[in-house]
């Protein structure tokens, strides 16, 4: 007899991943497909939304066609906040605008900030307007696609688009909605209909649900082998918050750190938290609020190093970097190679490699890049704690954890104990767990994904002085950065 299993699916920046998990948490199989985003010199980063469901169908069919299992539920997530606007039949009006790496709406950010007031936005919406906010991107689309003012449209993020194709239900989870500043009201945890009518008057707001809440069941006409009609589908959420679920970092005072194309941080609190340079959001569960932050580059920066050096094997670069002493023998990197998100919020920031000498090798450079991202994490944590957030420990997940060096460097730089679990598959595992918990198949993530390693800070090198140099380097070079950015 076929065993019951749940399917988790996540759309990332550079790939999509699906995982099939048995009721006891055993990962029965996983499938991945890579894809590319479109980038333009003027800061537009986009993707065809139709790809999101096409990849779900392809990966889901592969898994269910190769493993003898009866599908009991589906959970989904995706990068975000994204803005995909479609017509009433779900045909895209244009390619979807991606999350904070997409800087198209700078003018609209300025206009809406002037309209609502920076202080009022922070007080009422828990976040100021930055490239991470979805609201200004709605305004950008309405400015550049005037047909949106003439007919009804719909709004999707990756998870909600897949849910719509699976179930026919037009929904969005509250966590994702809370990143649509200023369209969402964190006090009521509902859409602000007056603001919505002003910014996106002809776009129908999706119904809001909690991330683990049932959105609907699969349609009978899907045509995906292995997925029958009537399979429960949850609302899902943004990938970092699904990964947070995969490692159990969902309680107040915990910090989740995601190692991916970008490093992303989510701190939890039992009350609303805010800071002008960070992102205050609603959590995936009732009663939890978040302060989030994210780097613009991290895993993408290590990939750049790999391509630049001509080394195809990450393990070789990691081994060379591990042989370099902490502090990279005088090298310091500002990892702002595509601008920076939190806490400096500067899309025109640029990467800096300071202290280069002729004896430095690619191992030195690679280690300095890892240390630079770790220093950026420390900067984010410092601002979070200044805002009143208490952080007891760090739980981590993501593709950057295949080797111990990077998380150990982050632990050493931040001085924080960090835990890694048995599976660090990422968001797709969190998706699977959320739906399993919703349908009564699973209880605790500790049973599904126990802690496998604890990283403890080393006393071999004092990063405090290097951290002060790190914080001083940006303000002392930002003027030159901006001049260079203006030249391309």
Structure description:
The chain has 488 residues and is an alpha/beta fold. It folds into 2 domains: 3-235, 2-Layer Sandwich (Nucleotidyltransferase, domain 5); 250-487, Nucleotidyltransferase, domain 5. Strands 20-21-19-18-24-25-26 form a 7-stranded mixed beta sheet. A 5-stranded mixed beta sheet has the order 3-2-1-6-17, with helices on both faces.
How are the elements arranged and paired?
Elements: E1 3-11, E2 15-22, E3 27-34, E4 38-39, E5 45-47, H1 50-66, E6 69-78, E7 84-86, E8 96-97, H2 106-116, H3 118-125, H4 135-144, E9 153-156, H5 158-167, E10 171-173, H6 174-177, E11 184-185, E12 190-191, H7 193-199, E13 203-204, E14 207-209, E15 214-217, E16 232-234, E17 237-238, H8 239-246, E18 254-259, E19 263-269, E20 279-282, E21 289-294, H9 299-309, H10 314-322, E22 332-334, E23 352-354, H11 362-386, E24 393-397, H12 405-414, E25 418-421, H13 427-438, H14 445-448, E26 451-455, H15 464-486
Helix pairs in contact: 2-4, 8-13, 9-11, 10-11, 11-12
Structural descriptors:
488 residues; alpha/beta; Nucleotidyltransferase, domain 5; 2 domains; 5-stranded mixed beta sheet; 35% helix; globular
Summarize the structure.
The protein has 488 residues and is of the alpha/beta class. InterPro entries: ATPase_NBD, Carb_kinase_FGGY, Carb_kinase_FGGY_CS, FGGY_C, FGGY_Carb_Kinase, FGGY_N.
What is the 3D shape? globular
CATH topology of the largest domain: Nucleotidyltransferase, domain 5
Mean pLDDT: 96
CATH superfamily caption of the largest domain: ATPase, nucleotide binding domain
